[in-house]
Amino acid sequence: MIDSVFLNGTVGVGKSSVAEALSVLEAKSEHCHAVIDLDHIRRAWPAPDGDRFNHELEMENLRDLVVNYRRAGVEHFILAGVVEEAGEVPRYEAALQSRGLLICRLEADPATLTRRLRLRHGSNPAELDWHLGRAGELAAILRAASVDHLIVDNSTGSPMATATIVQEKAGW
Fold it and tell me: What does residue 10 show for φ and ψ, rounded to 5 degrees?
């Protein structure tokens, strides 16, 4: 039984938007759930040497959040983040106390990613350049890691349409 969905993907692909849409669907179905954007729970500066994206902090915070959410009755988790290595999947399953984890990689064509990143980071050229470079780099890493159970193109459809596909696949 799937109780957790991990929306995986490169920067600008729409993970947070699809997570919010999936939350709306879950609320309509009256499922007790929580949305966790992993970017937010690992956001600290400076990152320690050897962990430039604060992944270890993310895992510690996720474990603690899950304990509190489970105690509050949360049955389904919706995560927006990045799984770059197959070896990380069991760590996420353990942190989530998951009985079943569906990993869905969202993809978008390069023009869509560029447009979205320009909208988000256009006022900061250095930040925009970093994200544009990271998008291609991360997309290649995620394809090579091949940890996903489902891959959905999120280039043109609405977040709600993508969330509906994910919800159906999860059996929610």
Answer: -75, 170
